[in-house]
Amino acid sequence: MTASKAAAAAAPQPQTRKRKTLDSFFAVKKKSKAEKQPDNAKIDVSATTTTAAAGAAGAAAAADVAEASGKETEDSNETADGSPAFDVSTIPEDQRAALRLELETIDGSWLAYLSSELTKPYFARLKAFLRAEHDAKKTIFPPPADLYSWTRFCSFPRVRVVVLGQDPYHGPGQAHGLAFSVRPGVRIPPSLLNMYKALERDIPGFVRPTHGYLRGWAEQGVLLLNAALTVEAHKANSHANRGWEELTDAVIKLVNDRAEHVVFMLWGSYAQKKGARVDTKRHLVLKSVHPSPLSASRGFFDAGHFRKANEYLRSHGRSEIDWARLPREEEQ
User: Which of 46, 49, 61, 58 is nearest to 105 (CA)?
Assistant: First the structure.
């Protein structure tokens, strides 16, 4: 499935623009995987309601997920790719309204496994925190529609490589749900620029792109996952230790336990600690310093991770990643 081409999200939006909530986002039927929103859009994390209308809204949201994925069948409890079909009944009816964003925008192949996480106490506390940030009129990145784009651009059965980041970029127009990636038209961040430099050494014929939009990798099975999925504008790590890490730990465990022959790229001490429980007999774990300008010169450029990832995938009968396939958004 292809993300919406709406031009409004392709570039940073003026901070003086009227703030929006997800009320307008959910007022219309979702047309594609990533309905774009202004960068200063707010995350609507409404309190749980017990009304019948809330249950209907949750069921409708789940139906949209199924329709968008095009994979579920009426008489099967599995999708066409073999992963279990998402069953909205796994979400208590009185919680569905509070989880509208998740039901609307997480890909069904991930929802089927992660829906139980959404009803745990830590996730309720996380939503309450985000609600408080919303009420305080703080600007949160990425835009709501892009928060779970890592699930839509890279469905669970497709995962072949996992790259762990820490939290989203906190500047206007940068974050769109994929770790290390920025939208076309946004200056390439220093860490990603160093990743491109490493690729020039690692992959013969690789030509550095003029943009930092990594959707082309995600669609080939590169899971670009941050430990925390939101951040307050201009405040790095401002949403750390609020609950996102528990959800993303569950994502890593899911890939570790249920996927086969995946490459985990753990750059820097934070990523290495987060990925410490990955089964090295089942998967390939590659460790290096972080590509940040502060550390990249201490071994990142010569680590050969991109080449080693493809060698491992090939040796286990899996398709390699075409690291050079990085079209701009309008070229998708």
Answer: 61
**β-sheet with 161-165: strand ranges across:** 222-226, 161-165, 263-267, 284-288
Distance (Å, whole) CA 90 – CA 86: 8
Question: Cis peptide before 157, with omega less than 30 degrees from 0?
Answer: no
Residue 204 CB neighbour total at 10 angstroms: 7
Q: For 78, which DSSP code?
A: B
Extract the tokens encoding 282.
């089942």
Rounded to whole angstroms, the Cα distance separating 171 from 313 reads 35
Is the pTM higher than 0.85?
Answer: no
Active-site residue (options: 39, 44, 107, 167): 167
DSSP H stretches of helix in 70-160: 100-105, 108-118, 121-135, 149-153
| Distances 35 to 46, 104, 178 between C-alpha atoms, Å | 20, 10, 15
Tens of pLDDT, residues 117-134: 999 999 999 999 999 999
Own/partner pairs, 21-30, CB within 8 angstroms, 24+ separation:
21/134, 22/100, 22/101, 22/144, 25/144, 25/145, 26/57, 26/100, 26/104, 29/64, 30/64, 30/68, 30/104, 30/105
167 is catalytic: yes
Instruction: Give ∠ CA 157-159-164 in degrees, rounded to 5.
Output: 145
Token match 């075409």: residue?
Answer: 322
> How confident is the model over 171-195, as pLDDT tens digits?
999 999 999 999 999 999 999 999 9
Q: What is the CA radius of gyration of the chain?
A: 19
